[in-house]
Design goal:
Number of strands: 14
Structural class: alpha/beta
CATH architecture of one domain: 3-Layer(aba) Sandwich
Order of helices and strands: EHEEHEHEHEHHEHEHEHEHHEHEEHEHH
Oligomer: single chain
Largest sheet: 6 strands, mixed
Length: 409
């Protein structure tokens, strides 16, 4: 199953100034979508371009500033370019005229630090042919192929795209099923989808759409219902559902309406298992019970959106958590993939949204600094389930077959 538009694979293009990074983007896209100039340093901040790559599908190319930029402003540009490494699935290191030195070696160290696959492309090969001894040296040192290319005369464009296909981790563009391992052919799945002031006008939210598509892809039946109609539906529905997936905000109502012998979870927990660090979430969620007065909680949203008066991450969860614990808690909210307002060590808990708008790599890298620092992490849906006393039921569909159940309790 090829990933949808919410989680396109990201490819970062890095190299010295005037090495033709923007020209490479135009060549791969087959159109002039990036500004090209002979003036070194034309690209100042990372610029994202959406393209379609044969064999991969929709992808994001990120054009970055030159890694050899100078001066106080240049240092800031390089820093912004390096910050992109946390968000890309594949890196392209662009070199020209057989120049490979300290800048490139330091950049490869950063690639390895982030466990990021990369390829080296020797651009402008129509001007200066790739030196075979240099290519052999780079390949032997870094176990990556050096590929000759000319963005202005892309005679081997198809082969270059094939190179990117082979280098791209399959997990970046091919997604495992959301619910397939829980379902059998013909199973019926009920999706509880409230239509309230946070629901988008005239459409469903992305996780709900993803769940419907995944159920259909697994040759099963999806029944979509609002929370007010669940009681009546359960009295007449046949066959009985193999699974019920609810919006986390109506967990309590769903728990009361869905018979206890029918597995119940939420869209957010479904996504947490699918693309987050699920075991870390399972370990971190119970830490809600040990929060103390003055503890600071970090709420991580993965997208920017209109903030409703009763926003789930900014209003409801903080209110529920404060009431449940009886403690005076402080909350910081970070939208998108922005920088944190304070060191991660100052937080007692991190609460991550479902992450439907970002890639698995972006989400895991976002949580990594908290996990490395020993800060507990949880997910919107898992936190809500804990706060409403139905945590074990909500995670059971994904944990009942695990061999190490003690980490989930």
């Amino acid at each position: 199953m090829v990933k949808g538009r919410e989680s396109k694979p990201h490819i970062g293009i890095f190299g010295r100034r005037n090495n033709g990074k923007s020209s490479l983007i135009n060549a791969l896209a087959g159109q002039d979508i990036a500004i090209v100039s002979d003036v070194a340093g034309t690209t100042t901040d990372p610029v994202r371009k959406s393209i379609e790559i044969p064999g991969i599908g929709p992808a994001i190319l990120i054009d970055t500033a030159g890694i050899d930029d100078t001066g106080e402003l240049g240092v800031k540009r390089v820093s912004r370019s390096l910050s992109v490494l946390k968000h890309v699935d594949l890196a392209i290191l662009l070199i020209t005229h057989n120049v490979f030195g300290d800048f490139e070696e330091k950049l490869i160290k950063e690639f390895n630090k982030h466990d990021l696959p990369f390829v080296v492309i020797h651009n402008k090969s129509d001007e200066v042919t790739l030196d075979e001894s240099l290519a052999h040296n780079i390949t032997s040192r870094y176990a990556t192929k050096v590929w000759p290319f000319s963005a202005l005369k892309p005679d081997n464009l198809d082969q270059t795209i094939s190179l990117l296909q082979r280098a791209m981790p399959e997990t970046a563009w091919r997604s495992s099923s959301l619910l397939g391992d829980l379902l059998r052919y013909g199973d019926l799945v009920v999706l509880i989808t409230p239509i309230d002031n946070e629901a988008p006008e005239g459409r469903l939210i992305l996780p709900q759409v993803q769940a419907i598509r995944d159920i259909i892809d697994n040759d099963c039946i999806a029944v979509v219902v609002k929370e007010k109609e669940v009681d009546a539906l359960m009295k007449t529905l046949h066959p009985r559902p193999a699974l019920v997936v609810t919006d986390s905000q109506v967990f309590t109502r769903a728990d009361a309406s869905v018979p206890s012998d029918i597995p119940l979870t939420s869209f957010s927990i479904m996504l947490a298992r699918h693309k987050g660090d699920f075991e870390s979430y399972l370990r971190g969620t119970p830490k809600i019970g040990s929060l103390k007065d003055g503890d600071r909680i970090l709420m991580l949203e993965s997208c920017t959106h209109h903030v409703a008066c009763d926003d789930i991450g900014r209003v409801k969860i903080p209110r529920w958590m404060s009431n449940h614990t009886g403690k005076r808690l402080e909350f910081d909210v970070v939208a998108g993939l922005g920088e944190l307002p304070r060191p991660i060590e100052e937080y007692a808990l991190v609460v991550q949204c479902g992450g439907c708008m970002i890639t698995r790599r972006q989400l895991k890298n976002r949580l990594k600094q908290a996990i490395d620092a020993g800060v507990p992490v949880t997910n919107y849906g898992m936190a809500i389930a804990w706060l409403h006393g139905i945590y074990h039921r909500a995670v059971a569909p994904f944990t009942k077959h695990e061999t190490n159940p003690e980490i989930y309790l």
